[in-house]
Amino acid sequence: MTTPPSAFPDVEKLVVDVLKADPALAGVTVAAQAAAGFDGTQNAVLVNRRGGAWIGDLHVDKPLIEFEVYGPTKTAAHVTANAARKALLATMGKQLGNAFVSDVEEQDGPRWMPDYLYRGANRYLCVIQLSLDVF
Asked: Which of 59, 51, 56, 53 is nearest to 133 (CA)?
């Protein structure tokens, strides 16, 4: 087995860039963490690497990407969740930074989940696994 890279690609940044470039998400805040003043009622997609695995022999990183999708209403959050999913699922076969997306698989979502940190939040969660061939 080969040794994993000293650092995985910054997949959160790669995914944030993909989502920010999608016209269907214009006007939606896309980030790896909530901005100051965030209260869960804004149109937002928070992108987090939830885990994954390095497959050494293949030089493949298989990160699990979680979207926390918020909106002013439950319907708005659902529409945004579907737009974010569509944008990331469309990356299969594309180059993202120093990685090639060889597979994209939805693991869960969109799933309604109340947010106990932000009382007024309308939140959906999605989890998508990427297979990134790292160069």
From this structure: 59
Q: Which residue has the tokens 């999605």?
A: 126
Q: In sequence order, which residues have a C-beta less than 8 Å from that of residue 1 and are 6 or more positions away?
A: 56, 57
Task: Report, as an integer, the average pLDDT of 55-62.
Answer: 82
Q: Which stretch of DSSP H or E encloses residue 104?
A: strand 99-112
At 97, is the pLDDT very low, low, confident or very high (cuts 50, 70, 90)? Answer: confident
Task: Say what the pTM is.
Answer: 0.91
**Helix (H) / strand (E) containing 132:** strand 122-134
3-state secondary structure of 36: coil
The values of phi and psi at residue 98, to 5°, are -95, 25
